[in-house]
Structures are given as C-alpha cells and as structure tokens.
C-alpha cells in the first residue's frame, strides 16, 4: 500500500528537513567549539553538500507541485532564493559567515514551504 504524498505533506517534510538543517548548523558550531574531532566530522563539506542535494530534491518536488496545484509562483520563488543562499554558503570558508548564510538560507526556504502549505489551504 503506497502512501500518497500530497504537496502539503511534502512541504511539511521539507520544513522538518529545514529544521534539522538549522539544528545541525547551530549544533556544529557549538560542537566545533567544544570538541574539535567531532566537529571535524559534523562540519565536513560532504555533509553540507549531501544535505543541500536532499533539500533541492524535496524543494523541487514540493514547490513544483504547489505551482501546479494552486498556481502561485511566489512560494517557489522564495524557496528558490533560500536554496540559492544555502548553495552560496558552500562557497564560503568554514566559520561564522558560512553558518550565518546557511541558517538564513534554511529559514528562507522554510518560509517558501510554509507559504506553499498556506496557498494549498
């Protein structure tokens, strides 16, 4: 039995993923400050790249389906901006600026998903 994934459910899952990303970014900053060896693993560029790839897949599906269902482009545009900011953070050296850009990008992306949910209600 397959569970139908509605756009609202996909957006909620994507917002949860955004929340996990936010927790990861903030926790990594704390862990790096406390435990350099564990921080090296959590701060690995591979984790950020994989996380961004997953976020792009969820966002593309959820926000794209939202456009087809409700016809509004704004949630997708805002979500795309958030993904762009997140992608831009990967170009920065590890440190406070990268964390700040990641957090801002995640929050913008989550806003896009929230607007997508609201447009479907």
List the helices and strands and how they pair.
Blueprint: H1 7-34, H2 36-42, H3 45-70, H4 74-89, H5 96-120
Average residue pLDDT: 82
* DSSP summary: helix tally: 5
Instruction: Report the strand count.
Output: 0
The number of domains is: 1
Q: Look at the helices and sheets and give the structural class.
A: mainly alpha
**Separation of the first and last Cα atoms:** 26 Å
Q: Could you list the spans in which at least 5 consecutive residues all have pLDDT below 50?
A: none
Percent of residues in beta strands?
A: under 5%
Largest β-sheet summary: none
**Helix and strand succession?**
HHHHH
**Helix share, percent:** over 70%
Shape: elongated
User: C-alpha Rg, in Å?
Assistant: 15 Å
Task: Summarize the entry for a quick read.
With 121 residues, the chain is an all-alpha fold. It has helices spanning 7-34, 36-42, 45-70, 74-89, 96-120.
Please give a structural write-up.
This protein is an all-alpha fold and 121 residues long. The protein has one domain. 84% of the residues lie in helices and 0% in strands. It contains five helices and no strands. It has helices spanning 7-34, 36-42, 45-70, 74-89, 96-120. Helix 3 runs parallel beside helix 5 (96-120). It is elongated, with a radius of gyration of 15 Å. The protein starts with 6 loop residues before the first helix and ends with a helix.
């Amino acid at each position: 039995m397959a569970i139908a994934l509605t756009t609202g459910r996909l957006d909620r899952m994507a917002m949860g993923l955004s929340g996990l990303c936010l927790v990861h970014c903030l926790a990594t900053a704390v862990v790096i400050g406390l435990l350099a060896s564990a921080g090296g693993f959590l701060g690995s560029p591979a984790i950020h790249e994989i996380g961004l790839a997953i976020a792009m897949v969820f966002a593309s599906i959820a926000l794209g389906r939202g456009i087809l269902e409700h016809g509004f482009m704004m949630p997708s545009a805002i979500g795309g901006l958030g993904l762009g900011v997140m992608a831009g953070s990967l170009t920065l050296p590890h440190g406070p600026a990268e964390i700040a850009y990641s957090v801002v990008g995640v929050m913008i992306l989550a806003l896009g998903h929230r607007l997508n949910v609201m447009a479907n209600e």
